[in-house]
Design the sequence.
DNA sequence: GATGAATGAGGCTTCATTCAT
DNA sequence: AATGAATGAAGCCTCATTCAT
């Protein structure tokens, strides 16, 4: 997966994968049909941990706190790490691997957005969020996370981005400005 | 460019490019040093029209109207079209073509964000925007556009996204809800 | 090596080498980095047997007999055979492969000439050779061998050359005419 | 010719020849049928001046003086200069261009050797040379010149060679040692 | 006559895949 | 089950040659 993330599907060599895995090239073919199916299986496998996170904890405190915690976790454990590159990899290779895009949509996106929408509706019901239409576009809630992932991999060295702080400001826009601690 | 957008850098064949361009393979080398520099030049060339747009029009009316117009233009002429794929292409290949990422940051991102920040500060000064910290993260302003571009190329067929309406809701979050027409 | 000798470096095709070697084209690259390093390694390898000969035998009989034996061996086993073509190949490609010329000078030429010089000085000390200055130009001793190699590959079919007899006459010039047997 | 000499036939590009000649690439084909015939014609043309020298002046003084003058001229105007490289070029490409080798043999070698033989026989008749068999191998007379040409292009930078002095020693071997001036 | 842009055959090299060991 | 040498299809690139201008 590291190799695919670093170079993309086409530019990755099975030689390198084998060396990195500490096996011979032929051994790969005992586990995978070919390079393409290996790529697809690896992506699927890599996505699973993301899926795990989506079984949201029950919203005990305020929705905003839940979201802020979620955002912090996502940014620290995904956007900043190798997992964030997997997201970028899916963006990059998705159009050529529709099955991967399908799988990703089914397992991650649709569930994640459903969860977001539920949270938003709960927050609206509780009066934490005033903008009722936000429930129609749960993508807006996670948009800064996407931006953070892209920014990290392309522009971080030109201009570092404090993704957590950015997300906090984003939540201020949604929930109303919070008095600074 | 179509070929590169469709397949990515490594998987694109010069044979196909030549056929699509209606020239022989050798002819390519009268114009470009090699595949890599052709890719870089094409990306640069493709970006130029985007850059032109960034010389912002003078904010005559309300900032929100300016941004809404800008968003509509961007989504209709970039996110929906082949140009949006170029943005995706840069996200995909940027890490392996640092020069392209550099160029893109210098010519598009830094200028665009500077323009956004100026607009945000103007809006804050005029009282249109209350969240002063937004000026520190102009990325937040365009985040829905990025999401739209990615969504279009990966998930549109699973779940169409009304990007313009999404952007309108986003602006409501920033400027406060506008009374429905 | 046969292919390189027959066609020269640039005109030799890896296709032909592979076919001649009875392997696939790709197999070549398991053993050599590229065409150039293959050429260089082959030349080096081909020279090794020549180098072996240069560890001179102890001059038991007269120096002239030693040289006549050496010349006979050289002409029969080098000038006449495929190895002679390697000498011609080095003359032909040397200027474009400085490393080969360097290697050849270091391993063959400088050692061979040192050996020749030692023999000449010994012969002078013994009174077999009167021309003391010959020791400054050991190249003169082997000049007919070079001429023989070149002649064989270019003009043999126009006018055969008895290289051994020529060398004998050459030795007569150096050692004084020997009474015919 | 400079291009061919520097790189050999196969590695020389018509692009470079055209640029050096100050004409367009297509223009070459108004004068030559193809690269091969151009090479052959150029070699032939380049050889002509060599041929001119062979119409020997009548041997007025001693044969040895004639030869020493000839050698000095040859080494200064051929071995040291670009013309010497042409000799090397013929050695290099001769086997693949039999017509050139033929032409060279006919126009230069056979005539040159005939002239040498005549000189040798004259010197024998005059008593300047004692070794009668030398007349059978006029190649021996010019062998040091060949060695000088090869040495210059391959090993000069490792160990400079005083070709004229070497030739003088060679003549000493043939004519008997001359008292030093 | 001269040009030089265009061509496309052909060469070098890579790398996914196979298979005898 | 694991290996890794061997394969050969396929891609990039060069350059001799052509031909419309």
Sequence:
């Amino acid at each position: 997966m590291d190799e695919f993330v670093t170079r993309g599907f086409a530019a990755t060599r099975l030689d390198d994968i084998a060396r990195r895995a500490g096996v011979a090239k032929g051994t790969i073919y005992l586990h995978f049909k070919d390079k393409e199916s290996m790529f697809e299986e690896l992506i699927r496998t890599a996505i699973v941990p993301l899926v795990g996170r989506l079984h949201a904890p029950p919203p005990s405190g305020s929705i905003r706190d839940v979201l802020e915690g979620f955002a912090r976790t996502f940014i620290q454990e995904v956007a900043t790490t190798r997992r964030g590159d997997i997201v970028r990899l899916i963006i990059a290779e998705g159009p050529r691997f529709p099955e991967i895009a399908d799988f990703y949509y089914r397992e991650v996106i649709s569930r994640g957005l459903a969860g977001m929408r539920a949270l938003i509706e709960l927050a609206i019901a509780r009066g934490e969020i005033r903008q009722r239409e936000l429930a129609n576009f749960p993508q807006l809630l996670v948009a800064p996370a996407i931006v953070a992932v892209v920014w990290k991999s392309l522009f971080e060295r030109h201009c570092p981005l404090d993704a957590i702080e950015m997300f906090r400001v984003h939540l201020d826009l949604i929930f109303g400005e919070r008095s600074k601690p």
Remarks:
- The mean pLDDT of chain A is 88.
